Amino acid sequence: PEGRARAATRADRALLVAWVEGFADATGQSKSSAEWLVDEGTERGSLTLWESGGTPAALAGRSRMLAGTVRVTSVYTSPEFRGRGFGAAVTAEASRAARAEGAAEVLLFADLANPTSNGVYLRIGYEPVADRVRLRRDT
């Protein structure tokens, strides 16, 4: 899509916190660490924004490298930009950045019940390797 990737900065903090909280809501995760994740990610330069016309459209983060592996995290597209390829673009850019930093493996977790995101991840080069289940505390 049109636009460009850039590293998120402290100036983006309010938007990033809202988006990380939106990601947590959508995935059933806790929002309690959103501010820490944003502060740590902007300090490390591991949060990538995709901008369209100078407006942030999508976000993807990268974990710290461990044993040559980086995980792409918190992929989120602002609702008004969904369905136009911005999520795919920012995910591909975060994945490229992980490889450029020396990652031998780049992975992400995807919801098998979401055919949209799964299709995107397949198109940009990811392949399924394992299924996981999570036991929620409320069950």
From TrEMBL:
<dbReference type="InterPro" id="IPR000182">
    <property type="entry name" value="GNAT_dom"/>
</dbReference>
<keyword id="KW-0808">Transferase</keyword>
<dbReference type="InterPro" id="IPR050832">
    <property type="entry name" value="Bact_Acetyltransf"/>
</dbReference>
<protein>
    <submittedName>
        <fullName>GNAT family N-acetyltransferase</fullName>
    </submittedName>
</protein>
<dbReference type="Pfam" id="PF00583">
    <property type="entry name" value="Acetyltransf_1"/>
</dbReference>
<feature type="domain" description="N-acetyltransferase">
    <location>
        <begin position="3"/>
        <end position="139"/>
    </location>
</feature>
<dbReference type="InterPro" id="IPR016181">
    <property type="entry name" value="Acyl_CoA_acyltransferase"/>
</dbReference>
<keyword id="KW-0012">Acyltransferase</keyword>
<dbReference type="GO" id="GO:0016747">
    <property type="term" value="F:acyltransferase activity, transferring groups other than amino-acyl groups"/>
</dbReference>
